[in-house]
Amino acid sequence: MGKVLIIGCGGVASVAIQKCCQVSEVFEEICIASRTKSKCDDLKNKLEGKTKTKITTAQVDADNVDEVIALIKSVQPDLVMNLALPYQNLTIMDACLACNVNYLDTANYESENIDDPEWREIYEKRCKEKGFSAYFDYSWQWAYQDKFKEKGLTALLGSGFDPGVTQVFCAYAQKHLFDTIDTIDILDCNGGDHGYPFATNFNPEINLREVSAPGSYWENGRWIEIPAMSIKREYDFDQVGMKDMYLLHHEEIESLAKNIPGVKRIRFFMTFGQSYLTHMKCLENVGMLSTTPVMYEGHEVVPIKFLKELLPDPATLGPRTVGKTNIGCIFQGTKDGKPRTAYIYNICDHQECYREVGSQAISYTTGVPAMIGAMMMLTGKYTKPGVYTLEEFDPDPFMEALNKHGLPWQINNDPVLVD
Which helix (H) or strand (E) holds 190? Predict the structure, then answer.
């Protein structure tokens, strides 16, 4: 049915590619491209003979728009799946526009050089326009709306779990469970244990910057910003247990505030253990989370990039991670004139993920929705010119695909609410 160019070959991409190969009637051809072609070749060799999907590989520097354009022209795909880092989103979107190809990613754009003076000037201007100061947000990519509309192309943003599936849950709740939704609490719990004193479950640069940034939430039509990790709650998660969770800024709050009519409050919480927080605070205090280069023995070193080299590679955590994730949305609102609550969530087992695709659940819960989003686009269910997030499409086929492809969901109609 379609040919896809997948840029990236890390943990999430590996899961997405393997899941695409399980649906070869949709993903007839895949080209895997990365800065390190040998990683693409290794995955191709692993999959050949186990799928009807035709797999090719290529080398590309996703920071170089001309290289990406040349690759797209060579491959001639129906869709480009950007499973590289969020740093490359704009470069790859530019290349897709130049080549008239649809686009998909799993997380919104952020700059790799947030301490660069030129970028900071643009960033601070955007902060005033947005009303909050998160350096990762949808505004950079929403600015492409007219360009994609004029070309008749679709850009699907954030087709991971959060962002991604959490927005599909919201659209499903709006369509089937509520007449009005007043509040949404998105809860992301990772109950997994990898046995290391300190490690991140996805790219350390992205993860540590996200956690150490100021938190924010949407309430009564405006953004409320708080110091990082300053709001804590405890919650008893199904099949995981009692966990501490902290309010963070997360990009899907932005789009949900725009696309869920009448919603009064949206918050995002993520669980963290005390050991993780202690390590992170210590690293922050000594400057290891900085993106500003420092000179060391005559060489320029970016502290957070050096730290990334010291920490365990998230892609290697699969065989040693045990436990489960629990991610979902708690809703309060009305149905047929009466108060209503609901909690839609998924539970994912780290070891089951490893047995199936050789990854831990964090990569799995992002890679599977990436495949499903691409499938929705290739089959014509999610195609309209412009730049969109998942809650702007019919949730039903996506929800059905989640159950079919490894991320079954459930509904609790009487959940414990977050105060």
Answer: strand 180-190
**CA neighbor of 406 nearest in space, from 49, 104, 15:** 15
What dotted CATH number matches 165-359? 3.30.360.10
pLDDT digits 0-9 by tens, 264-321: 999 999 998 888 778 888 888 888 888 788 898 898 988 888 888 888 887 777 788 8
Token pair in block for residue 195? 């046995």
Among candidates 369, 324, 318, 319, which has minimal Cα distance to 348? 324
The domain segmentation of the chain, as residue ranges, is 2-157, 165-359
Nearest Cα neighbor of 102 from 32, 10, 4, 21 is: 4
Q: Between 3.90.660.20, 3.60.15.10, 3.40.50.720, 3.40.50.11540, what CATH number should domain 2-157 receive?
A: 3.40.50.720
Q: What's the pLDDT score for residue 358?
A: 94
Q: In DSSP terms, which residues pair with 158 in a beta bridge? A: none
Q: How far is CA 144 from CA 119, 174, 278, 282, 383, in A?
A: 18, 27, 40, 39, 16
- pLDDT tens, 333-359? 999 999 999 999 999 999 999 999 999
Burial, 380: exposed, middle or buried (Cβ in 10 Å; 0-12, 13-18, 19+)?
Answer: exposed
Position with higher pLDDT, 123 vs 57: 57
Greatest C-alpha distance within the chain: 69
Confidence of residue 407 (pLDDT cuts 50, 70, 90): very high
